[in-house]
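User: Show me sequence and structure for the first protein, then do the same for the second.

Assistant: Starting with the first protein.
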Amino acid sequence: MKPIPTFCKADYQFLRELILKSKNETNTKEANLLSQELDRAVIGKESELDSVIRINSFVTIEDVQANKQMKIQIVLPSAADLKQSKISILAPLSVAIIGFKENDQVDWELPAGIKTLKVVSVDNSDVLHS
Protein backbone atom coordinates (compact mmCIF):
# COMPACT_ATOMS: atom_id res chain seq x y z
CA MET A 1 0.00 0.00 0.00
CA LYS A 2 1.22 3.47 -0.85
CA PRO A 3 2.22 5.64 2.12
CA ILE A 4 0.22 8.80 2.82
CA PRO A 5 2.14 12.00 2.03
CA THR A 6 2.54 14.65 4.74
CA PHE A 7 2.89 18.41 4.22
CA CYS A 8 2.96 21.46 6.42
CA LYS A 9 0.11 23.86 5.75
CA ALA A 10 2.34 26.45 4.02
CA ASP A 11 3.85 23.88 1.60
CA TYR A 12 0.41 22.41 0.92
CA GLN A 13 -1.05 25.82 0.01
CA PHE A 14 2.04 26.78 -2.00
CA LEU A 15 1.84 23.57 -4.06
CA ARG A 16 -1.89 24.06 -4.68
CA GLU A 17 -1.13 27.56 -6.07
CA LEU A 18 1.78 26.25 -8.13
CA ILE A 19 -0.50 23.61 -9.70
CA LEU A 20 -3.07 26.26 -10.65
CA LYS A 21 -0.40 28.49 -12.20
CA SER A 22 1.28 25.74 -14.19
CA LYS A 23 -1.73 23.80 -15.51
CA ASN A 24 -1.56 25.53 -18.89
CA GLU A 25 2.02 24.39 -19.53
CA THR A 26 3.29 21.07 -20.82
CA ASN A 27 3.22 19.34 -17.42
CA THR A 28 -0.54 18.95 -17.02
CA LYS A 29 -0.19 15.24 -16.23
CA GLU A 30 2.31 15.88 -13.42
CA ALA A 31 0.24 18.76 -12.06
CA ASN A 32 -2.81 16.46 -11.95
CA LEU A 33 -0.82 13.70 -10.23
CA LEU A 34 0.53 16.17 -7.67
CA SER A 35 -3.01 17.42 -7.09
CA GLN A 36 -4.15 13.83 -6.43
CA GLU A 37 -1.31 13.39 -3.91
CA LEU A 38 -2.35 16.61 -2.16
CA ASP A 39 -5.97 15.38 -2.08
CA ARG A 40 -4.95 12.40 0.06
CA ALA A 41 -2.25 14.17 2.08
CA VAL A 42 -2.13 14.77 5.81
CA ILE A 43 -1.28 18.23 7.12
CA GLY A 44 1.40 17.91 9.80
CA LYS A 45 3.08 20.31 12.19
CA GLU A 46 6.29 21.94 10.98
CA SER A 47 8.18 20.31 13.87
CA GLU A 48 7.11 16.83 12.75
CA LEU A 49 8.44 17.18 9.20
CA ASP A 50 12.20 16.79 9.74
CA SER A 51 12.47 13.60 7.68
CA VAL A 52 9.68 14.43 5.19
CA ILE A 53 10.52 15.34 1.58
CA ARG A 54 9.66 18.99 0.94
CA ILE A 55 10.58 21.74 -1.50
CA ASN A 56 14.38 22.26 -1.27
CA SER A 57 14.91 18.90 0.47
CA PHE A 58 18.06 16.97 -0.40
CA VAL A 59 16.97 13.37 -0.89
CA THR A 60 18.77 10.08 -1.40
CA ILE A 61 16.52 7.56 -3.12
CA GLU A 62 17.17 3.99 -4.09
CA ASP A 63 15.85 2.15 -7.10
CA VAL A 64 14.99 -1.06 -5.26
CA GLN A 65 15.12 -3.38 -8.30
CA ALA A 66 18.41 -1.98 -9.66
CA ASN A 67 19.90 -1.46 -6.19
CA LYS A 68 21.14 1.99 -7.28
CA GLN A 69 21.04 5.17 -5.24
CA MET A 70 20.81 8.76 -6.44
CA LYS A 71 20.90 12.08 -4.64
CA ILE A 72 18.64 14.87 -5.79
CA GLN A 73 17.28 18.16 -4.53
CA ILE A 74 13.61 19.01 -5.08
CA VAL A 75 13.33 22.62 -6.24
CA LEU A 76 10.91 25.08 -7.81
CA PRO A 77 10.61 24.76 -11.61
CA SER A 78 12.62 27.97 -12.11
CA ALA A 79 15.59 26.53 -10.14
CA ALA A 80 15.64 23.10 -11.80
CA ASP A 81 19.06 22.06 -13.14
CA LEU A 82 19.64 18.40 -13.99
CA LYS A 83 23.44 18.86 -14.08
CA GLN A 84 23.28 19.83 -10.39
CA SER A 85 20.68 17.12 -9.61
CA LYS A 86 18.08 19.81 -8.92
CA ILE A 87 14.74 18.34 -9.95
CA SER A 88 11.60 20.46 -10.46
CA ILE A 89 8.76 19.82 -8.04
CA LEU A 90 6.60 19.28 -11.14
CA ALA A 91 8.89 16.58 -12.59
CA PRO A 92 7.48 13.04 -12.41
CA LEU A 93 10.18 11.88 -9.96
CA SER A 94 9.46 14.73 -7.53
CA VAL A 95 5.71 14.17 -7.76
CA ALA A 96 6.33 10.50 -6.94
CA ILE A 97 8.22 11.21 -3.69
CA ILE A 98 7.16 14.63 -2.33
CA GLY A 99 5.57 14.41 1.11
CA PHE A 100 7.04 11.01 1.92
CA LYS A 101 9.63 10.30 4.61
CA GLU A 102 12.74 8.22 5.21
CA ASN A 103 12.22 4.48 4.68
CA ASP A 104 8.97 4.95 2.72
CA GLN A 105 8.72 3.00 -0.52
CA VAL A 106 6.76 4.34 -3.46
CA ASP A 107 6.04 3.08 -6.95
CA TRP A 108 7.03 5.42 -9.75
CA GLU A 109 5.43 4.92 -13.16
CA LEU A 110 7.81 5.24 -16.09
CA PRO A 111 7.27 4.62 -19.79
CA ALA A 112 9.25 1.38 -19.35
CA GLY A 113 7.14 0.23 -16.40
CA ILE A 114 6.82 0.76 -12.67
CA LYS A 115 9.89 1.25 -10.48
CA THR A 116 9.89 0.92 -6.72
CA LEU A 117 11.79 3.71 -5.02
CA LYS A 118 12.89 3.73 -1.38
CA VAL A 119 13.55 7.01 0.41
CA VAL A 120 16.98 6.41 2.01
CA SER A 121 17.58 9.81 3.57
CA VAL A 122 16.12 13.31 3.70
CA ASP A 123 18.11 16.44 4.57
CA ASN A 124 15.96 19.50 5.24
CA SER A 125 18.71 21.81 6.47
CA ASP A 126 18.12 24.14 3.49
CA VAL A 127 14.32 24.13 3.71
CA LEU A 128 12.80 27.51 4.47
CA HIS A 129 10.58 27.13 7.51
CA SER A 130 7.51 29.26 7.50
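Switching to the second protein now.
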Amino acid sequence: MLFDVLIIGGGIVGCAIARELSRYRLEVALCEKEVEVGFGTTKANSGIIHGGHHAAPETLKGRLEWEGNQLWDELAADLGFGFARVGELTVALHEEQLPVLDRLLHHAAVKRIPGVERWEPARIRSEEPALSHDILAAVYAPTTAVVNPYEACYALAENAVQNGVTLLTGLPVRRLHQKDDLWEVVTPGAYLASRFVINAAGLYADVIAAMAGVQTFTIHPRKGEEYLLDKRLRGLVKRVIFPCPSPVSKGILIIPTYDGTIMVGPTAEDVHDRTDLTTSARGAQTVFDAVRRLAPGIHEKDVIAQFAGLRAAADGEDFIIGPTAKRGFINVAGIQSPGLTAAPAIARRVVELLRDERLKLELRDDFIAKRPAPIHFAALSTQEQIALALRDPRYRRIVCRCEIVTEGEVLDAIARGACTLDGVKFRTRAGMGRCQGGFCTIRCMELLARAQRLPMTAVTKRGPGSWLVCARTEEEKAGAI
Protein backbone atom coordinates (compact mmCIF):
# COMPACT_ATOMS: atom_id res chain seq x y z
CA MET A 1 0.00 0.00 0.00
CA LEU A 2 1.82 3.09 -1.28
CA PHE A 3 0.95 6.63 -0.18
CA ASP A 4 2.20 10.17 -0.56
CA VAL A 5 1.54 10.93 3.11
CA LEU A 6 0.92 8.53 6.00
CA ILE A 7 -0.34 10.02 9.27
CA ILE A 8 0.32 7.95 12.39
CA GLY A 9 -2.27 8.71 15.07
CA GLY A 10 -6.03 9.17 14.76
CA GLY A 11 -6.68 11.70 17.50
CA ILE A 12 -8.14 15.15 16.88
CA VAL A 13 -4.83 16.42 15.46
CA GLY A 14 -4.24 13.44 13.16
CA CYS A 15 -7.83 13.62 11.88
CA ALA A 16 -7.57 17.38 11.30
CA ILE A 17 -4.37 16.83 9.30
CA ALA A 18 -6.02 14.06 7.26
CA ARG A 19 -9.00 16.26 6.42
CA GLU A 20 -6.78 19.22 5.46
CA LEU A 21 -4.61 17.04 3.20
CA SER A 22 -7.72 15.62 1.52
CA ARG A 23 -8.07 19.02 -0.21
CA TYR A 24 -5.12 18.08 -2.43
CA ARG A 25 -4.52 15.50 -5.14
CA LEU A 26 -2.60 13.12 -2.90
CA GLU A 27 -2.77 9.54 -1.72
CA VAL A 28 -3.18 9.96 2.04
CA ALA A 29 -3.63 7.36 4.78
CA LEU A 30 -4.46 7.73 8.46
CA CYS A 31 -3.14 4.85 10.59
CA GLU A 32 -4.57 4.41 14.12
CA LYS A 33 -3.73 1.67 16.61
CA GLU A 34 -7.20 1.61 18.20
CA VAL A 35 -10.23 0.16 16.40
CA GLU A 36 -11.77 3.63 16.10
CA VAL A 37 -10.34 7.15 15.89
CA GLY A 38 -10.49 9.43 18.91
CA PHE A 39 -10.09 6.66 21.49
CA GLY A 40 -6.93 8.10 23.06
CA THR A 41 -6.44 11.53 24.61
CA THR A 42 -9.19 13.03 22.45
CA LYS A 43 -12.07 11.19 24.08
CA ALA A 44 -11.04 12.40 27.55
CA ASN A 45 -10.53 16.01 26.49
CA SER A 46 -12.26 18.83 28.36
CA GLY A 47 -13.84 20.01 25.11
CA ILE A 48 -12.80 23.67 25.41
CA ILE A 49 -11.82 25.82 22.45
CA HIS A 50 -9.60 28.25 24.33
CA GLY A 51 -10.15 31.97 23.86
CA GLY A 52 -6.67 32.52 22.44
CA HIS A 53 -5.14 34.56 25.26
CA HIS A 54 -3.85 31.83 27.58
CA ALA A 55 -0.64 30.71 25.87
CA ALA A 56 2.19 33.23 25.61
CA PRO A 57 2.47 34.87 22.14
CA GLU A 58 6.16 33.95 21.78
CA THR A 59 5.45 30.19 22.03
CA LEU A 60 4.31 27.92 19.21
CA LYS A 61 1.30 27.08 21.37
CA GLY A 62 0.48 30.75 21.66
CA ARG A 63 0.67 31.40 17.91
CA LEU A 64 -1.44 28.39 16.97
CA GLU A 65 -3.98 28.77 19.80
CA TRP A 66 -5.55 31.96 18.42
CA GLU A 67 -5.22 30.90 14.78
CA GLY A 68 -6.94 27.60 15.58
CA ASN A 69 -9.67 29.30 17.61
CA GLN A 70 -10.76 31.26 14.54
CA LEU A 71 -11.13 28.15 12.35
CA TRP A 72 -13.67 26.26 14.46
CA ASP A 73 -16.83 28.13 13.42
CA GLU A 74 -16.43 27.16 9.77
CA LEU A 75 -15.43 23.59 10.66
CA ALA A 76 -18.54 23.12 12.82
CA ALA A 77 -20.78 24.62 10.15
CA ASP A 78 -19.29 22.41 7.42
CA LEU A 79 -19.14 19.16 9.36
CA GLY A 80 -22.25 19.43 11.53
CA PHE A 81 -20.94 18.87 15.05
CA GLY A 82 -21.97 20.74 18.19
CA PHE A 83 -20.08 23.97 18.87
CA ALA A 84 -20.97 27.04 20.93
CA ARG A 85 -19.08 30.19 21.88
CA VAL A 86 -20.04 30.45 25.54
CA GLY A 87 -17.18 32.68 26.72
CA GLU A 88 -15.02 32.26 29.80
CA LEU A 89 -13.97 33.90 33.05
CA THR A 90 -10.50 33.47 34.54
CA VAL A 91 -10.88 34.43 38.19
CA ALA A 92 -8.50 35.60 40.92
CA LEU A 93 -9.20 34.67 44.55
CA HIS A 94 -6.10 36.28 46.06
CA GLU A 95 -4.22 39.54 45.63
CA GLU A 96 -1.08 37.75 44.43
CA GLN A 97 -3.07 36.31 41.50
CA LEU A 98 -4.04 39.69 40.08
CA PRO A 99 -0.78 40.02 38.04
CA VAL A 100 -1.78 36.78 36.28
CA LEU A 101 -4.93 38.51 35.05
CA ASP A 102 -2.80 41.41 33.83
CA ARG A 103 -0.62 38.96 31.90
CA LEU A 104 -3.70 37.41 30.21
CA LEU A 105 -4.92 40.88 29.23
CA HIS A 106 -1.45 41.59 27.79
CA HIS A 107 -1.53 38.35 25.75
CA ALA A 108 -4.94 39.33 24.36
CA ALA A 109 -3.69 42.79 23.42
CA VAL A 110 -0.58 41.44 21.65
CA LYS A 111 -2.66 38.91 19.69
CA ARG A 112 -5.43 41.45 19.03
CA ILE A 113 -8.13 39.23 20.45
CA PRO A 114 -11.41 41.17 20.56
CA GLY A 115 -13.65 41.59 23.61
CA VAL A 116 -11.22 40.45 26.32
CA GLU A 117 -11.69 42.64 29.38
CA ARG A 118 -11.35 42.79 33.14
CA TRP A 119 -14.46 42.33 35.27
CA GLU A 120 -14.78 43.59 38.83
CA PRO A 121 -16.77 41.77 41.58
CA ALA A 122 -20.09 43.53 40.93
CA ARG A 123 -20.10 42.52 37.25
CA ILE A 124 -19.04 38.95 38.10
CA ARG A 125 -21.88 38.53 40.62
CA SER A 126 -24.40 39.97 38.21
CA GLU A 127 -23.36 37.71 35.31
CA GLU A 128 -22.48 34.53 37.27
CA PRO A 129 -24.36 34.58 40.61
CA ALA A 130 -23.33 31.02 41.52
CA LEU A 131 -19.66 31.99 41.78
CA SER A 132 -17.97 32.68 45.11
CA HIS A 133 -18.14 36.20 46.52
CA ASP A 134 -14.46 35.80 47.44
CA ILE A 135 -13.48 36.39 43.81
CA LEU A 136 -11.56 39.67 43.56
CA ALA A 137 -11.52 40.12 39.79
CA ALA A 138 -11.72 38.20 36.53
CA VAL A 139 -10.71 38.36 32.90
CA TYR A 140 -13.62 37.78 30.53
CA ALA A 141 -13.08 36.38 27.02
CA PRO A 142 -16.07 36.00 24.67
CA THR A 143 -14.00 33.99 22.19
CA THR A 144 -13.93 30.77 24.26
CA ALA A 145 -16.15 27.92 23.01
CA VAL A 146 -17.18 24.39 23.93
CA VAL A 147 -17.29 21.40 21.61
CA ASN A 148 -17.64 17.63 21.81
CA PRO A 149 -14.06 16.65 20.90
CA TYR A 150 -14.88 13.05 19.96
CA GLU A 151 -17.81 14.19 17.80
CA ALA A 152 -15.49 16.63 16.02
CA CYS A 153 -12.86 13.91 15.61
CA TYR A 154 -15.36 11.53 13.97
CA ALA A 155 -16.61 14.32 11.70
CA LEU A 156 -13.09 15.18 10.52
CA ALA A 157 -12.22 11.53 9.86
CA GLU A 158 -15.52 10.86 8.10
CA ASN A 159 -15.09 13.88 5.83
CA ALA A 160 -11.46 12.94 5.11
CA VAL A 161 -12.59 9.48 4.00
CA GLN A 162 -15.37 11.11 1.97
CA ASN A 163 -12.55 12.90 0.13
CA GLY A 164 -10.46 9.79 -0.53
CA VAL A 165 -8.27 9.37 2.58
CA THR A 166 -7.62 5.72 3.46
CA LEU A 167 -8.52 5.09 7.12
CA LEU A 168 -6.63 2.19 8.69
CA THR A 169 -7.72 1.36 12.24
CA GLY A 170 -6.61 -1.35 14.64
CA LEU A 171 -3.07 -1.18 13.22
CA PRO A 172 -0.37 -0.30 15.76
CA VAL A 173 2.97 0.56 14.15
CA ARG A 174 5.57 -2.08 15.00
CA ARG A 175 8.48 -1.03 12.82
CA LEU A 176 9.44 2.01 10.81
CA HIS A 177 12.45 2.58 8.58
CA GLN A 178 13.54 4.58 5.55
CA LYS A 179 14.54 2.90 2.32
CA ASP A 180 15.62 5.15 -0.53
CA ASP A 181 12.86 7.76 -0.89
CA LEU A 182 10.20 5.79 0.94
CA TRP A 183 9.28 5.12 4.54
CA GLU A 184 8.30 1.53 5.19
CA VAL A 185 5.81 1.08 8.02
CA VAL A 186 5.11 -2.36 9.40
CA THR A 187 1.91 -3.13 11.32
CA PRO A 188 0.42 -6.49 12.37
CA GLY A 189 -2.16 -6.31 9.60
CA ALA A 190 -0.54 -4.40 6.77
CA TYR A 191 2.76 -3.36 5.22
CA LEU A 192 2.64 0.32 4.28
CA ALA A 193 4.96 2.59 2.33
CA SER A 194 4.85 6.36 2.07
CA ARG A 195 6.95 9.26 0.83
CA PHE A 196 6.18 11.26 3.96
CA VAL A 197 5.25 10.23 7.50
CA ILE A 198 3.49 12.56 9.94
CA ASN A 199 4.08 11.50 13.53
CA ALA A 200 0.89 12.54 15.37
CA ALA A 201 0.97 9.59 17.76
CA GLY A 202 0.18 11.55 20.93
CA LEU A 203 1.37 9.72 24.03
CA TYR A 204 3.55 7.48 21.86
CA ALA A 205 5.04 10.16 19.59
CA ASP A 206 8.48 9.71 21.15
CA VAL A 207 8.26 5.94 20.62
CA ILE A 208 7.43 6.43 16.93
CA ALA A 209 10.24 8.99 16.61
CA ALA A 210 12.65 6.49 18.16
CA MET A 211 11.60 3.86 15.61
CA ALA A 212 12.45 6.37 12.88
CA GLY A 213 15.82 7.09 14.48
CA VAL A 214 15.04 10.73 15.26
CA GLN A 215 14.01 10.81 18.92
CA THR A 216 14.95 14.25 20.22
CA PHE A 217 12.28 14.54 22.90
CA THR A 218 10.45 12.49 25.52
CA ILE A 219 6.73 12.41 26.25
CA HIS A 220 5.85 12.74 29.93
CA PRO A 221 2.23 11.62 30.46
CA ARG A 222 0.20 13.97 32.63
CA LYS A 223 -3.02 12.56 34.01
CA GLY A 224 -6.16 14.62 34.43
CA GLU A 225 -9.23 13.37 36.30
CA GLU A 226 -12.60 14.82 35.28
CA TYR A 227 -16.04 14.52 36.88
CA LEU A 228 -19.36 14.84 35.05
CA LEU A 229 -22.31 16.22 37.03
CA ASP A 230 -26.03 15.61 36.80
CA LYS A 231 -28.03 17.71 34.33
CA ARG A 232 -30.04 19.18 37.18
CA LEU A 233 -27.12 21.63 37.50
CA ARG A 234 -27.58 22.82 33.93
CA GLY A 235 -27.23 26.59 33.86
CA LEU A 236 -25.39 26.84 37.17
CA VAL A 237 -22.69 28.68 35.24
CA LYS A 238 -23.07 30.06 31.74
CA ARG A 239 -19.37 30.36 30.91
CA VAL A 240 -16.25 28.24 31.33
CA ILE A 241 -14.72 29.18 34.69
CA PHE A 242 -10.92 29.08 35.00
CA PRO A 243 -8.86 29.67 38.13
CA CYS A 244 -5.59 31.53 37.63
CA PRO A 245 -3.28 29.09 35.79
CA SER A 246 -0.06 27.52 37.04
CA PRO A 247 3.10 26.99 34.93
CA VAL A 248 2.01 23.42 33.99
CA SER A 249 -1.78 23.56 34.11
CA LYS A 250 -4.69 25.86 33.46
CA GLY A 251 -6.08 24.59 36.75
CA ILE A 252 -9.30 22.87 37.77
CA LEU A 253 -12.22 24.28 35.80
CA ILE A 254 -15.99 24.41 35.76
CA ILE A 255 -17.12 23.61 32.22
CA PRO A 256 -20.70 23.93 30.90
CA THR A 257 -20.45 21.30 28.16
CA TYR A 258 -22.14 21.65 24.78
CA ASP A 259 -24.75 19.05 25.76
CA GLY A 260 -25.76 20.86 28.94
CA THR A 261 -23.99 18.92 31.66
CA ILE A 262 -21.43 20.51 33.95
CA MET A 263 -17.94 18.99 33.99
CA VAL A 264 -15.31 19.76 36.61
CA GLY A 265 -11.57 19.09 36.46
CA PRO A 266 -8.98 18.19 35.40
CA THR A 267 -6.23 17.39 37.85
CA ALA A 268 -2.62 17.51 36.60
CA GLU A 269 -0.52 14.58 37.84
CA ASP A 270 2.65 13.41 36.13
CA VAL A 271 2.61 9.62 35.77
CA HIS A 272 4.94 7.03 34.25
CA ASP A 273 2.34 4.57 32.95
CA ARG A 274 0.95 5.61 29.55
CA THR A 275 -2.11 3.43 30.14
CA ASP A 276 -3.00 4.70 33.63
CA LEU A 277 -6.56 5.99 33.30
CA THR A 278 -7.59 5.37 36.89
CA THR A 279 -9.51 7.86 38.98
CA SER A 280 -9.00 8.15 42.73
CA ALA A 281 -10.56 9.42 45.94
CA ARG A 282 -7.59 11.77 46.25
CA GLY A 283 -8.20 13.14 42.77
CA ALA A 284 -11.89 13.68 43.49
CA GLN A 285 -11.10 15.55 46.69
CA THR A 286 -8.59 17.73 44.85
CA VAL A 287 -11.15 18.59 42.18
CA PHE A 288 -14.09 19.32 44.47
CA ASP A 289 -12.04 21.25 47.01
CA ALA A 290 -10.88 23.46 44.14
CA VAL A 291 -14.23 23.98 42.41
CA ARG A 292 -16.06 24.72 45.67
CA ARG A 293 -13.71 27.67 46.11
CA LEU A 294 -15.03 28.93 42.78
CA ALA A 295 -18.70 27.85 43.06
CA PRO A 296 -19.78 26.73 46.56
CA GLY A 297 -22.96 25.06 45.30
CA ILE A 298 -21.12 22.23 43.52
CA HIS A 299 -21.03 18.91 45.42
CA GLU A 300 -19.73 15.36 44.90
CA LYS A 301 -23.26 13.95 45.29
CA ASP A 302 -24.05 15.22 41.77
CA VAL A 303 -21.36 13.12 40.05
CA ILE A 304 -22.79 10.73 37.45
CA ALA A 305 -19.49 9.73 35.79
CA GLN A 306 -15.76 10.09 36.29
CA PHE A 307 -12.87 9.43 33.95
CA ALA A 308 -9.24 10.27 33.38
CA GLY A 309 -7.20 11.22 30.35
CA LEU A 310 -3.48 11.53 29.71
CA ARG A 311 -1.94 14.63 28.15
CA ALA A 312 1.14 14.18 25.98
CA ALA A 313 3.43 16.74 27.61
CA ALA A 314 6.87 17.01 26.03
CA ASP A 315 10.16 18.48 27.21
CA GLY A 316 9.83 22.24 27.42
CA GLU A 317 6.00 22.13 27.54
CA ASP A 318 5.64 23.59 24.01
CA PHE A 319 4.39 21.93 20.84
CA ILE A 320 7.02 20.13 18.73
CA ILE A 321 6.05 20.54 15.08
CA GLY A 322 8.54 20.31 12.27
CA PRO A 323 10.81 18.24 10.04
CA THR A 324 13.54 16.01 11.43
CA ALA A 325 17.02 14.88 10.46
CA LYS A 326 15.42 12.11 8.38
CA ARG A 327 13.87 13.52 5.21
CA GLY A 328 10.15 12.90 4.95
CA PHE A 329 9.56 12.35 8.67
CA ILE A 330 7.70 15.20 10.39
CA ASN A 331 6.93 15.38 14.11
CA VAL A 332 3.64 16.74 15.45
CA ALA A 333 4.28 15.99 19.11
CA GLY A 334 3.79 17.33 22.61
CA ILE A 335 0.28 18.42 21.66
CA GLN A 336 -1.25 19.02 25.05
CA SER A 337 -3.59 21.91 25.93
CA PRO A 338 -4.48 23.93 23.89
CA GLY A 339 -4.04 21.14 21.34
CA LEU A 340 -7.75 20.75 20.61
CA THR A 341 -8.06 24.48 19.99
CA ALA A 342 -4.97 24.55 17.78
CA ALA A 343 -5.75 21.34 15.82
CA PRO A 344 -7.04 22.97 12.60
CA ALA A 345 -4.16 25.46 12.66
CA ILE A 346 -1.68 22.62 13.24
CA ALA A 347 -3.14 20.88 10.19
CA ARG A 348 -2.51 23.96 8.04
CA ARG A 349 1.02 24.25 9.39
CA VAL A 350 1.72 20.62 8.43
CA VAL A 351 0.56 21.34 4.89
CA GLU A 352 3.05 24.22 4.69
CA LEU A 353 5.83 22.01 6.07
CA LEU A 354 5.10 19.44 3.37
CA ARG A 355 5.19 22.20 0.76
CA ASP A 356 8.58 23.30 2.12
CA GLU A 357 9.73 19.67 1.83
CA ARG A 358 8.86 19.87 -1.88
CA LEU A 359 5.74 17.73 -1.87
CA LYS A 360 3.67 18.79 -4.87
CA LEU A 361 0.36 20.14 -3.56
CA GLU A 362 -2.35 20.54 -6.18
CA LEU A 363 -5.77 21.60 -4.91
CA ARG A 364 -8.65 19.38 -5.97
CA ASP A 365 -11.63 20.95 -7.69
CA ASP A 366 -13.90 18.20 -6.34
CA PHE A 367 -13.15 18.60 -2.62
CA ILE A 368 -16.30 18.03 -0.55
CA ALA A 369 -16.21 20.52 2.33
CA LYS A 370 -19.48 19.50 3.96
CA ARG A 371 -20.81 16.23 5.31
CA PRO A 372 -24.44 15.45 6.21
CA ALA A 373 -24.82 16.13 9.93
CA PRO A 374 -26.14 13.23 12.02
CA ILE A 375 -29.62 13.56 13.48
CA HIS A 376 -29.81 14.28 17.20
CA PHE A 377 -33.42 13.47 18.06
CA ALA A 378 -33.34 15.18 21.48
CA ALA A 379 -32.31 18.48 19.88
CA LEU A 380 -35.30 18.55 17.50
CA SER A 381 -38.51 20.40 18.21
CA THR A 382 -41.56 18.33 19.12
CA GLN A 383 -43.04 18.87 15.65
CA GLU A 384 -39.78 17.80 13.99
CA GLN A 385 -39.64 14.69 16.18
CA ILE A 386 -43.20 13.75 15.23
CA ALA A 387 -42.54 14.26 11.52
CA LEU A 388 -39.33 12.20 11.66
CA ALA A 389 -40.98 9.36 13.61
CA LEU A 390 -43.85 9.23 11.09
CA ARG A 391 -41.36 9.14 8.22
CA ASP A 392 -38.98 6.55 9.72
CA PRO A 393 -40.17 4.05 12.36
CA ARG A 394 -36.62 3.60 13.70
CA TYR A 395 -36.95 7.03 15.32
CA ARG A 396 -40.06 5.91 17.24
CA ARG A 397 -38.03 3.52 19.39
CA ILE A 398 -36.06 5.07 22.26
CA VAL A 399 -32.83 3.25 23.08
CA CYS A 400 -31.40 5.61 25.73
CA ARG A 401 -34.01 7.17 28.01
CA CYS A 402 -31.65 9.54 29.84
CA GLU A 403 -30.43 11.26 26.67
CA ILE A 404 -33.45 10.44 24.46
CA VAL A 405 -31.43 8.59 21.83
CA THR A 406 -33.39 6.61 19.25
CA GLU A 407 -32.71 3.38 17.41
CA GLY A 408 -32.35 5.38 14.21
CA GLU A 409 -29.46 7.38 15.67
CA VAL A 410 -27.66 4.27 16.87
CA LEU A 411 -28.00 2.58 13.48
CA ASP A 412 -26.80 5.75 11.74
CA ALA A 413 -23.75 5.83 14.04
CA ILE A 414 -22.96 2.22 13.12
CA ALA A 415 -23.33 3.03 9.43
CA ARG A 416 -20.88 5.92 9.91
CA GLY A 417 -18.24 3.63 11.41
CA ALA A 418 -19.08 2.84 15.04
CA CYS A 419 -18.02 -0.74 15.69
CA THR A 420 -17.88 -0.68 19.51
CA LEU A 421 -20.12 0.36 22.37
CA ASP A 422 -17.93 3.41 23.02
CA GLY A 423 -18.10 4.31 19.35
CA VAL A 424 -21.89 4.38 19.59
CA LYS A 425 -21.79 6.28 22.88
CA PHE A 426 -19.49 9.04 21.70
CA ARG A 427 -21.43 9.53 18.47
CA THR A 428 -24.94 9.49 19.95
CA ARG A 429 -24.62 10.03 23.77
CA ALA A 430 -26.38 6.71 24.43
CA GLY A 431 -25.05 5.68 27.83
CA MET A 432 -23.85 9.15 28.84
CA GLY A 433 -26.83 10.10 30.99
CA ARG A 434 -27.62 9.68 34.64
CA CYS A 435 -27.92 5.87 34.60
CA GLN A 436 -24.65 5.57 32.61
CA GLY A 437 -25.89 2.84 30.31
CA GLY A 438 -27.89 0.87 32.85
CA PHE A 439 -30.88 0.86 30.53
CA CYS A 440 -29.43 1.13 27.02
CA THR A 441 -26.21 -0.91 27.00
CA ILE A 442 -27.82 -4.23 26.07
CA ARG A 443 -29.98 -2.63 23.39
CA CYS A 444 -26.94 -0.92 21.82
CA MET A 445 -25.08 -4.23 21.90
CA GLU A 446 -27.99 -5.96 20.18
CA LEU A 447 -28.03 -3.35 17.42
CA LEU A 448 -24.25 -3.58 16.98
CA ALA A 449 -24.35 -7.37 16.83
CA ARG A 450 -27.20 -7.38 14.32
CA ALA A 451 -25.67 -4.71 12.07
CA GLN A 452 -22.25 -6.40 12.04
CA ARG A 453 -23.70 -9.92 11.85
CA LEU A 454 -21.78 -10.93 14.96
CA PRO A 455 -22.75 -12.77 18.12
CA MET A 456 -23.27 -10.65 21.24
CA THR A 457 -20.09 -12.17 22.67
CA ALA A 458 -18.08 -10.47 19.91
CA VAL A 459 -19.29 -6.95 20.77
CA THR A 460 -16.71 -4.97 22.73
CA LYS A 461 -16.65 -1.75 24.69
CA ARG A 462 -13.63 -0.29 22.87
CA GLY A 463 -11.94 -3.09 20.94
CA PRO A 464 -10.05 -6.33 21.69
CA GLY A 465 -9.77 -7.12 25.38
CA SER A 466 -12.90 -5.18 26.37
CA TRP A 467 -15.58 -7.83 25.91
CA LEU A 468 -18.80 -7.26 27.81
CA VAL A 469 -20.47 -10.68 27.80
CA CYS A 470 -19.26 -14.23 27.30
CA ALA A 471 -20.93 -17.42 26.15
CA ARG A 472 -22.29 -19.70 28.83
CA THR A 473 -20.39 -22.93 29.37
CA GLU A 474 -22.11 -26.30 29.02
CA GLU A 475 -22.01 -26.64 32.82
CA GLU A 476 -23.72 -23.28 33.27
CA LYS A 477 -26.36 -24.19 30.73
CA ALA A 478 -27.00 -27.46 32.51
CA GLY A 479 -27.24 -25.66 35.86
CA ALA A 480 -29.79 -23.22 34.46
CA ILE A 481 -32.00 -26.09 33.39
